[in-house]
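Quick one: structure for this chain?
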Amino acid sequence: MNIKIEDKDSKAIVFDKIRTEIEKHNFSIINEDQTRPWGGFFVIEESQASDFITKFFPHLKLDEVQITNKLSPKILVVAPEKRLSWQYHFRRAEIWKVVEGPVGVKISDTDEEGELKTLQNGDFIQMDKGERHRLIGLDSWGVIAEIWQHTDQDNPSDEDDIVRLQDDFGR
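Got it. Here's what it folds into:
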């Protein structure tokens, strides 16, 4: 993807540019959320998960990534100088690729936040189920391709499968 996001762009303009780029690559957006205090996300049609992996994670093979029948492809959008909660999940692992960066990431096996790592365009990171993590917007908007590796076929992960250890927004 080639998204030209300017520092002066409003949240609405940033989302318009990303939506246009997603649709240009023939992905169907089934949900869009601009209401998150840290930015928001686009949910891509599950039936396009294989194409999503081919586009954003060409080094991965679908059968190596897919634990259950669902991957929940998304595009995360993190605003400058905003942080998602310090969190982990019981029913999913996550794989991220930076589409527009840089972005910051912290990971840890404990409740103590790890050191800040800066990821650039094209960088890839994988978090295991239960691994603590946080996505951080740096000086500009960050755009991340994300897939969820659902670990419980009978009870796939969802937005309620977030254990927040710290949250800037009091959630």
